[in-house]
Amino acid sequence: MNFISLHTPIGELTIIASNQGVTEVTFDFEASKVTDNFVNNPTSQRHLQQAKQELEEYFTGKRKHFTFTLAAKGTEFQNKVWQQLSDIPYGIVQSYSDIALKLNNPKGVRAVGMANGKNPIAIAVPCHRVIGKNGTLTGYAGGLNRKAWLLQHEQKHR
Fold first, then answer.
1. Angle, to 10 degrees, between the axis of helix 109-117 and the axis of helix 76-86?
2. Does residue 127 carry a catalytic annotation?
């Protein structure tokens, strides 16, 4: 595992990668949590550099889709939700109930919300594109101000 920081218009992002791909993109990285699991290796460095470049392009309005390798760890249900999030087009929002319906689980709105909140790869797995059924901005691990900024950014560059 290895990590790199990226300064963005909405704060510092930390990108964490293993040999398999990017495991996290987070606003709330604590350097004090760095352990011996973090070692510099060429494979994770390639994943980090690609993710950093693509995120930089996103913040300048030049990238609407990410191609870096994802390696998030989650339950089977979380992975299904995260895949649905990845399928939400740039600049478009969907509700938690929309995602639940796509998973053939219309009563699973809360479970979708919980999985959405556990998404470890901010921006590239666009949980910021999920809003309340009534159109309101609801929880975002990075904070509602960041969620609003990301949605406005995507509208501006659509």
1. 80
2. yes
